[in-house]
Here is the input.
Amino acid sequence: MKNILNKISYAFIALALVGCHSDLDQSPIDPDSFTEEDVYANVEDAKSALAKLYAGFAVTGQQGPAGNPDLDPDDIDEGFSQFTRTLFYLNELTTDHAVLGWGDAGVADMHGMYWTDSNDFTNAMYNRLGQEVSFCNSFIQNAGQLSDPEAQTFIAEARFLRAYAYYNLMDLYGNVPIQVTVATTLPSQNTREEVFNFVEAELLEVKDLLPASGGNEYGRVDQVAAWALLSRLYLNAEVYTGQNRYNDCITYCNEVMNSSYSLNMSDGNGNGTAYDELFLADNDSNGAQNEFIFALNFDGVQTQTYGGTTFLVHAQIGGSMVPADYGVDSGWAGLRTTSSLVNNFEEGDMRAMFYTDGQSLEIEDISQFSNGYAVTKFKNIDTNGNPGVGSGQDLRTDNDLPLIRLAEIYLTYAEATLRGGNGDMSTAVQKINEIRSRAFEGNSGNITSSNLTLDFVLNERSRELYWELLRRTDLIRYNQFTTGSYLWPWKGDQPNGISVDSYRNLFPIPNNNLATNPNLTQNPGY
Here is the structure.
């Protein structure tokens, strides 16, 4: 996908997708501009339009890192609006995994858990995902006119990306409109269960239309991505629909585990560990890519953004940390973690990647970077210790960001088995021990079946997947996100943590959307 993105003219793609916002029969005013007919004239040009769909999750507009945004800059600063950065705010900053000391409007609302329907970040995510759906709808409609068989693969990929967008809308907001065609009429709102059924049906259909395991270019999805997203969908089905689907979850975990993907188990040169290779600047080529089922590709030259791994690398650096040690010129002195995450790790676990010099474990004042341990999980250096290709320029990081990787599926299999699914307990223990043998660089952290409990799996998911955009969803599934059954520092805006109202398991529909579309109803509590 990096190779594809290198060829994109974002301005031309934006014009090509004008039908997402207006009548498809209208042509751009500029007579020298490309039209939809130009973009979909052949399958090779359509491939560039497909790249825009992937790029919709990675960048924020038509030039990087900012300057020609896809979303209205009057609604939110472009740098804040990138998909994974906003998802980090919603799914990690609202949990025990992270705090952010900046004073930007709406940031404190996240870790304090007192956001409103006018919060910039909840609104940006809703609109970003809605725009991605619109882009996908336009692509599916236009690419469907091509006779080349390869176009059908492109359409299957677009349908997967649309399903992934709807999965997130359902997870974050609950009842949202399902729109599968380019239209100018105001959509009606669907129930969360209806959105679940739509996502499920789309994935079940496209799984047999996508390339076989490992059969697509790196950065583009194959059928394993559909299996993996189905397993995540079914693991959370009881939250979304009230019905458990753990047997179905096990079915698709097995499909993934029997595919060509594999854990990155062995560091090739003795620098770092096999785990930290997953988050380095060459994770598209150092072996980590064999674990990435669905990843966003970032390149320090071609995909510049204030979000993505640029945000994760820069925002975690402050205090006495030396930016050059992380392959960048400067730190943004923002992100740290709470003592709850730090204390979750056992001695010898190499996944505990924290910077402690000059940092206090406990947080008395979130605005002070010295309060709370810094996280060093993401580094813009490669396995040989060299900085990424964008070194020397503040915004350039090369780390790709996994959205789904194999280790998550191992953990999902174990949890679904424990929750009554028809998995095999010995297999679950084996898969957990594969993850832990990498973490402990040997078998000292191995467990037995007596150790494998639901609480253990939740804690292991935290240790393995922290800052990978899943924590809020996990805590909701365990009924710990809003309740008093699990408290962490600054939950509910209190130093020792308090419970909050359960309606905060969902984010609000943006107030401006409610104002413009009378078919929408706000989520309870807001």
About this structure: The chain has 19 helices and six strands. Confidence is low (pLDDT under 50) at residues 1-32.
